[in-house]
Amino acid sequence: MRIDILTLFPEMFSEVLSSSILGRAQANNLLTIHAWNIRDFAFDKHRTVDDIPYGGGAGMVLKPDVVVACIEHVKAINSGKVIYMTPQGSVFDQTKAQSLAQEANLIFLCGHYEGIDHRIREGWVDEEISIGDYVLTGGELPAMVVIDAIARLIPGVLGDQASAREDSFANGLLEYPHYTRPSQFRGRMVPEVLLSGNHELIRKWRLKEALRMTLVRRPDLLKKRQLNDEERQLLQQVLADDCNERR
Ligand SMILES: C[S@@+](CC[C@H](N)C(=O)[O-])C[C@H]1O[C@@H](n2cnc3c(N)ncnc32)[C@H](O)[C@@H]1O
User: Fold this and answer.
1) Nearest CA to ligand 1 atom 15
2) CA-CA distance, 208 to 203, in Å (whole number)?
3) Which residues does 177 contact at the CB level (< 8 Å), separation at least 6?
4) Which helix (DSSP H) or strand (DSSP E) does residue 150 occupy?
5) How many Å apart are CA 108 and CA 110, to the nearest integer?
6) Which residue, among 48, 21, 15, 17, has the nearest Cα to 156 in the 3D structure?
7) Cβ(81)–Cβ(107) below 8 Å
8) Would residue 167 show up in a list of annotated catalytic residues for this protein?
9) Pairing assessment for the beta strands 32-37 and 2-7 based on DSSP bridges
10) Atom nearest to 115 CA in ligand 1
11) Strand ranges (DSSP E) for the chain?
12) Contacts of 172 (CB under 8 A, 6+ apart)
């Protein structure tokens, strides 16, 4: 996958996107990420990228001529859709990450200050994504969040792709709890079943704990999900455990 990012602060991306798993994905040519400085497309000697809003009011707005010059330059290299990061976009989730991970090319446009001239959104933006109902100073952190979530779903990026399949949200549930050595830590034991070596019992335990975690923390996810017979049975057991604990 090729990802181009249009930003006033390309330096923000270098450290984050070249570290750890994403860095390895780029070294292995599974992913190419390039951050462009919108300021390089300014037309005047002061390299102006923003201007005061028509109608007055606080803050500055990114200029359409400069931003569109940048978009058009990048579109000649990357044919992907242009995604504008904005709190007004549709809220990003794992389902969206899975669908964007199928794309071969993507372009992310990061706003700053009050945002971008609305005509850019009307004429040059294909999609708008928010990372949640709060307002950040710029689109850089949101773009990093979305790129990270997408990149780890590209086949080959994670060492073991099964881990992405079992992650929270991947199958509509939160993931089960994890443990590692030592088996006893300050009086707290690892659940015995995980030491049993019995793969079927471990699978069942994990499914039950995933259902428990989801029921307690995100019951809204359970309402949206069709449970199969085994999951229904295990959920009954979770509810029975809960009743017994309260007695
Ligand atoms: C201060 S915000 C502008 C907010 C804008 N005035 C509004 O009220 O919708 C500056 C930039 O940060 C980015 N941004 C802020 N919060 C965001 C969020 N929750 N999701 C995605 N992008 C966000 C956008 O690119 C936006 O153009």
Assistant:
1) 136
2) 9
3) 209, 213
4) helix 140-151
5) 6
6) 21
7) yes
8) yes
9) parallel
10) 27
11) 2-7, 32-37, 50-51, 61-62, 81-91, 105-110, 127-130, 184-185, 188-189
12) 221, 224, 225
Residue ranges of domains in the chain, CATH in brackets: 2-151 (3.40.1280.10), 168-246 (1.10.1270.20)
Ligand 1: does its nearest atom lie under 6 Å from the Cβ of 10? no
Q: What SS3 class is residue 185?
A: strand
Residue located via tokens 């109608």: 55
Residue 54 CB–ligand 1 contact under 6 Å: no
3-class DSSP assignment, residue 62: strand
Catalytic residue among 10, 64, 87, 142: 87
Q: Which of 117, 121, 152, 212 is catalytic?
A: 152
pLDDT of residue 246: 83
Residues in the chain with pLDDT < 50? none
CA distance 159 to 214: 26
Dihedral sign, Cα of residue 144, residue 150, residue 156, residue 159: positive
Query: How distant, in Å, are the alpha carbons of 12, 108, 222, 245 from that of 129?
Result: 20, 10, 25, 43
Give the amino acid at 11: E
* DSSP 8-state symbol, 104: S
| Nearest residue (CA) to ligand 1, atom 13 | 139
